């Protein structure tokens, strides 16, 4: 996982590797929630992700709560068709902006 914080815009970008599952829970938590204060916006880049499990969905929900729930500015980008379909079936297209 590659983490980039744009301090000027207070945007945290996470470029995830091949697997978005429980194995990266600690790294995801530390990057998004570990500092205590929420960033103004988040970009979750799924461009390299080939598999995602239910814990990944849980991590996204925790991030959403941390970032302000309905006021959260979280964009999920570069999701392939299969991942996009999974996110839609789970109703995440109503909770997050999918690009």
Helix/sheet category: alpha/beta
CATH superfamily: STAS domain
Give the ordered list of helices and strands. EEEHEEHEHE
Total helix count?
A: 3
| Overall mean pLDDT | 93
**Sheet with most strands: strand arrangement:** 1-2-4-6-7
CATH class reads Alpha Beta
Q: Detail the poorly predicted runs.
A: none
Number of strands: 7
Radius of gyration: 12 Å
Number of domains: 1
The proportion of strand residues reads: 25-35%
> How far is it from the N-terminal to the C-terminal residue, by CA?
19 Å
CATH architecture title:
2-Layer Sandwich
Major beta sheet, specifics? Answer: 5 strands, mixed
CATH topology: Transcription Regulator spoIIAA
The outline comes out as: globular
Query: Fraction of residues in helices?
Result: 25-40%
